[in-house]
Design a protein that fits this description.
This protein is mostly helical. The chain folds into 2 domains: 309 residues, Farnesyl Diphosphate Synthase; 272 residues, Orthogonal Bundle (Cytochrome p450). It is 57% helix and 6% strand. The protein contains 30 helices and 14 strands. The strands form 5 sheets. Strands 3-4-12-9-5 form a 5-stranded mixed β-sheet, with helices on both faces. Strands 6-14-13 form a 3-stranded antiparallel β-sheet. A hairpin with a 4-residue loop joins strand 3 and strand 4. Helix 7 crosses helix 8 and helix 10 runs antiparallel to helix 12.
């Protein structure tokens, strides 16, 4: 977990200076929009970005720096450079956003890049789209830009870029400190400047020797230019980095090392940048004046040095104007040098703390930013109960967000429907989760839970996540659909699909690996499902698939495509949320004083324990909506067409709605039955027309499961030395529950 820098958070305001360079600007390319459109199409074609990422790139200036780097390079070289820029941006976002790069993942990725660029890795076994595109397209096209010696130099700088990223990830994971000298060395490569300087030379058609004058001037020029562009990024992003808990920024490193106040640290970084610019100018003059520099090479050397000047200027202009580095919306780009206070910055969904411990962020949002625009994710955040409930019930908050969140995976489905269409399709499924059907499912729940418990008898310890909370809901939903769960292998296969599918649905940060893996897993699941669909079409049974084949909406039968998608949604959402809910229930029963013994004495209290768990420790922490028009909420106005994050975990702990909201109160609910209806006080099941269809199934599943578990193991407790640690950005629960039986 990243450690925030105490020298800047919540301290006095500091000004972001205007960075001015004595160099010319690269000018605007006449084909800049063509290059942008190409990069977006390319990224979507190879799975680096999804529909939401493509729209975001088309609507913002994020690709502007890539276009500026191309200068006047011919279109063929410029497109390769743009594709590398997008590839590097995606990599940078993956490293910065969430846990993707941790636990050795970036090490494995870097090893694969090493093998690919040596020609020793083929397509077999490679699933990450960033690696696939490198094999299939980007590296072969790059190799055609210049000779083998240049390509090997580029390869070295690419691997240095990855090595530097890995170094910082390791330091984040170990909370290690870093001095300014070491940081400067690493930062040149984490920003990727040497890699892009190579690409610019080849795109321009002017590849210089490593040391044209023989006096070491050219490497120094490249280092000074790399320092300028990377430190420019640091100065403009320092406030954002501090909010994200990112310690590795030149300003924060200087503040820590020299014990500087915020403004003094910013000024020190700005002074270092100005010195680097002066050094560059002096070395360039000396370089071009060396007698050892061949006369024939002087025009190319002068041009290449001029391109470095253009790159530095382009970086300064881009960082000053791009919205990526603004703390709040509505701030004019030209005012980026304004005085800022990091304590006034809105928490962002890209913060790692949303994975580890979101509740302090929720409290800050509720009290200070109840309606907040999160620029890095282009999302409006709602954290107060009144606002969230309104967003979940007001028809102006639509499910249009699912056009990028789920439609690419499962097509048009019940979760992406609104209005009359949603009502008609929901009416088909509602009876299958109520009354008589629920009684039948209760028998199945009891049978599955009892079978799982029996497998634990005679053991001293167990991980209940692996052996109880995960397989229970998977088997219950599979039985409802009429799918077999007779063997551990069948259950594990279904479990893998549900896990991947839910990761895709909850991929709000749009990680490309999850986008691609989700589609591949979907295809695998559909191939598995097809024989069961064929059988139910001709020989109906008493399962939900048969019911859907027998159903009609507006005089038309449901399409097979819709039925497939519905099976995937029910299996995924029903399994993953119930798994997390049961895990959190077990944690509270074992952790909260007296609760385990109370529910053993009075099994009816299990219902109360679950109700309070769903409120205080909601398994689903947020859901998205999209506004069809501007909407006035108690906390302010949300604009039309906005993506809105309803922070369930924050709303359920709103002190304006719940007394002592962080406390676990076994007797909080006046009516337990009401908490499983649209009138529920908490919003763990949503609210309004999209209130969770399976709320009663969840209640039956989790309460019966816990009762059966405690009946079998009345002295259930944590294994020696184990403490549950809930994690998760969307679905929140512990990854393990090690218990003594």
């Amino acid at each position: 977990m990243p450690v925030s820098s105490p020298s800047l958070i919540g301290s006095e305001p500091f000004a972001i200076p205007r960075v001015r360079l004595p160099f010319g600007t690269p000018g605007e390319r006449p084909d800049s929009e063509v290059l942008r459109a190409h990069a977006i199409r390319w990224g979507e074609e190879f799975g680096l970005i999804g529909p939401r990422g493509g729209a975001r790139l088309a609507e913002t200036s994020l690709l502007g720096l890539g276009v500026a780097l191309t200068g006047t390079a011919p279109r063929s070289g410029a497109t390769v450079l743009m594709d590398w820029f997008l590839w590097a941006v995606v990599l940078d976002d993956r490293v910065d956003d969430g846990p993707w790069a941790e636990d050795g993942a970036l090490d494995r990725f870097s090893a694969a890049v090493d093998a690919i660029t040596r020609g020793q890795e083929d397509q077999a076994g490679v699933h990450d789209p960033m690696l696939t595109v490198l094999i299939d397209d980007l590296w072969p096209r790059t190799g055609r830009l210049a000779d083998a010696a240049w390509l090997e130099r580029l390869r070295g700088h690419l691997l240095h870029h990855l090595d530097a990223q890995r170094d910082l990830v390791r330091m984040r994971e170990t909370a290690a400190d870093i001095g300014s000298e070491e940081y400067v060395r690493i930062r040149r490569h984490t920003f990727g400047a040497p890699l892009f300087f190579d690409l610019i030379e080849a795109a321009d058609g002017v590849v210089l020797p490593a040391d044209p004058c023989g006096q070491g001037c050219w490497p120094v020029l490249r280092d000074r230019a790399a320092d300028v562009v990377s430190w420019t990024n640091d100065i403009h992003s320092v406030a954002k980095d501090v909010v994200l808990g990112e310690r590795f920024n030149l300003v924060t490193v200087l503040a820590q090392e020299r014990r500087l106040a915020p403004q003094a640290a910013v000024d020190a970084a700005h002074e270092m940048l100005a010195t680097a610019v002066g050094d560059f100018t002096a070395v360039k003059r000396r370089h071009l004046g060396h007698a050892e520099l061949p006369e024939a090479d002087r025009p190319d050397v002068a041009r290449a040095a001029g391109r470095l000047e253009q790159v530095m200027t382009a970086c300064v202009d881009w960082h000053r104007t791009t919205s990526r580095y603004h703390l709040r919306s509505g701030i004019p780009a030209q005012d980026n040098h304004r005085s800022v206070r990091t304590g006034e910055a809105t928490p962002t969904l890209k913060s790692r703390q949303f994975e580890t411990d979101p509740y302090p962020l929720y409290e800050r949002l509720r009290t200070t930013f109840p309606l907040a625009y999160d620029e890095p994710t282009d999302t409006w955040l709602l954290s107060r109960h009144a606002d969230v409930r309104t967003a979940l019930t007001d028809q102006r908050f639509t499910n249009a967000n699912y056009t990028w969140q789920i439609t690419p995976l499962l097509g048009h489905s019940i979760v992406s429907m609104d209005g009359r269409e949603h009502t008609a399709h929901r009416a088909l499924l509602t009876p299958e989760f109520r009354s008589r059907a629920l009684a039948v499912m209760h028998e199945s729940i009891t049978e599955v839970a009892t079978s799982l418990v029996e497998r634990l008898r005679g053991r001293d310890t167990a991980d209940l996540i692996t052996e109880f909370t995960t397989p229970l809901p998977v088997q219950v939903i599979a039985r409802l659909l009429g799918l077999p769960t007779d063997t551990p292998e069948q259950v594990a296969r279904l479990r893998n699909w549900t896990k991947v599918g839910f990761s895709y649905l909850g991929n709000y940060r749009q990680d490309p690996g999850l986008l691609t893996y989700g589609l591949a897993s979907r295809d695998d699941f559909y191939a598995y499902l097809q024989p069961y669909l064929d059988a139910r079409r001709t020989h109906p049974g008493n399962d939900l698939i048969s019911v859907m084949f027998d159903s009609v909406v507006d005089g038309q039968p449901l399409s097979e495509e819709y039925i497939r998608g519905c099976c995937a949604i029910l299996l995924t959402a029903g399994s993953e949320t119930s798994n997390a809910g049961l895990a959190n229930l077990i944690v509270n029963v074992l952790d909260e004083p007296g609760v385990r013994d109370a529910v053993r004495r009075d099994p009816a209290l299990v219902d109360h324990a679950l109700t309070e768990t769903l409120r205080r420790d909601a398994p689903m922490q947020l859901v998205l909506r999209q506004t069809s028009e501007a909407v006035e909420l108690p906390s302010g106005t949300v604009p039309a067409g906005a993506t809105v994050a309803c922070l369930i975990g924050a709303a359920n702990r709103d002190p304006e709605r719940f007394r002592l909201p962080d406390a676990f109160d076994l007797h909080r609910a006046d009516s337990v039955d009401r908490e499983y209806s649209a009138a529920s006080s908490h919003v763990a099941f949503g609210a309004g027309r999209h209130f969770c269809l399976g709320s009663h199934l969840v209640r039956a599943e989790l309460t019966a499961g816990l009762r059966i578990l405690l009946d079998a193991f009345p002295d259930l407790r944590w294994a020696p030395g184990f403490t549950p640690r809930p994690t998760g950005f969307v679905k929140r629960c512990p990854p393990r529950l090690d218990v003594a039986l």
